[in-house]
Amino acid sequence: MKAIHTKYDVAESMEFPGVLTLKVLLTGEQTNGAWAIFEDIVKPGIGAPLHIHHEQDETFFFLKGQFQVHIDGEIHEMSEGDVALIPKGTVHAFKNVGEQEGVIRYAFSPAQNIEEMFRSFYKASLEGGLSDEEMNAIALKHGQEIVGPPF
Q1: Coil, strand, or helix at residue 39?
Q2: Long-range contacts made by residues 25-32, C-beta under 8 angstroms, separation at least 24?
Q3: Out of 14, 46, 110, 127, which could bridge 22 as a Cys pair, Cβ 3.0 to 4.6 Å?
């Protein structure tokens, strides 16, 4: 693999109104499936549903704000500078519990083509909303599974 350099200010950005902005910083396509790195700018009170990555480890880097992270039934308080490693096959979710927008950067390894799942979520949201059933159907196509609502 050759060296890759991306610029934050021109990164692909997907706005999920009232929820979060997802920035694509490095894709599996760029790294031959080895790594993908994303950033979420999360509105207060918003979190991801409980889910599992069946084939990938995920690492969260908390850059701004106050979050709770659900990892295999345990709740962890996270703030700026904290890191959480979620091994593949582990049920997890996060929630912004602060009063301001929070920022999480996260990496998948191996990436495979995880960016396509996020693009599919975004496309579905633009076409009239993203139901829980549709979100899970998209996730399953990419080796992921939604197993519960946000906590």
Answers
A1: strand
A2: 25/105, 27/111, 27/113, 27/115, 28/108, 28/110, 28/111, 28/112, 28/113, 28/114, 28/115, 29/113, 29/115, 30/4, 30/6, 31/1, 31/4, 31/111, 32/1
A3: 14
Which residues contact residue 41 at a Cβ distance below 8 angstroms, ignoring those fewer than 6 apart? 20, 21, 23, 101, 102, 103
pLDDT tens digits for range 78-94: 999 999 999 999 999 99
Domains of the chain are 11-148 (2.60.120.10)
- Residue 117: CB atoms within 10 A of its CB come to 18
Q: Which two tokens stand for residue 36?
A: 């993908």
* CA-closest candidate to residue 25, choices 45, 41, 48: 41
Which residues on neighbouring strands pair with residue 16, listed in sequence order?
20
